[in-house]
Amino acid sequence: MTRIKNIISNQYHQLNLAERGRIETLRGLDWSIRRIAKALHRNPSTISRELRRGTTTQINANTHIFEQSYLAETGEAVYRKHRLNSCYRGLFDHCQTFCNALVTALKARPRMHSVDTFVHQFKTNYPGVVCPSTPTAYRYIDDQRLAIRNSDLPAKLRRRVKRPGTKHHRINKKNLGHLIEERPTVVQARQELGHWEGDLVKGKRVESEPALMTLTERVSRLEIIVKLPNYHADTCLKAFQKNLYDYGTEYFKIITSDNGAEF
């Protein structure tokens, strides 16, 4: 079975420069389109389209008359140009007007826009011009595809972005202890002595000023008031311990206080 009579369809391949050179030579010998197609094992429509692409006007050196002739280099150049335009080059190549305007706006002093506000204004003022979204604009900056860097965006450097699937553990997070709702039911019912509530009464909010520490028994409403020279945490702790030992630890089962720094 010959190639031109093969009934199995093969994947189409573009003409290469060598085939275009043969077309130029055979066309110069006044071969017909079908004869050239048969010699190159190509479809006549392929040869016809190639002749239209690569045909150019030249001056005959002998007669000085304009003539139409096919050139392989011209056909190859036109093919590569069309091939380049047929491929999608991405959003970045189509939004250069926006990118140039964004760089100018962010480098202006005083600066009037952030990335987000500029994207919104650009879409409003130029609805027919290609404009990326705010996250895409930030991604261009991160990828250094624009003439601005993250150092030109001071607010972005201070912002911590939460990413899905990751947890941020605060090193210096204050442990607030158990919630007041987690107290035993016997404390909530006020049916048993020995459960106290503590609080601190401050005058002026100055650490060196004296304060009053109060302990209130929830059932009998007995009140213990202690004057403190200041409301530092260590001062409150010493006052707690002194009262426990003075009155007896057996009378203090649970002491509930708020989440103030002094406790």
From TrEMBL:
GO-annotated molecular function: transposase activity
Keywords, sorted A to Z: DNA recombination
Coiled coil residues, start to end: none
Gene3D superfamilies tied to this protein: Homeodomain-like (1.10.10.60)
Stretches assigned to the Integrase catalytic domain: 180-263
GO-annotated cellular components: cytosol
Pfam family, one: HTH_38
Superkingdom field: Bacteria
InterPro entries to which the protein is assigned, alphabetical: Integrase_cat-core (IPR001584), IS30-like_HTH (IPR025246), RNaseH-like_sf (IPR012337), Transposase-Integrase (IPR051917), Transposase_IS30-like (IPR053392)
Keyword match Protein biosynthesis: no
Biological process annotations from GO: DNA integration; DNA recombination; transposition
Protein name, per record: Transposase
Organism, as annotated: Liquorilactobacillus mali
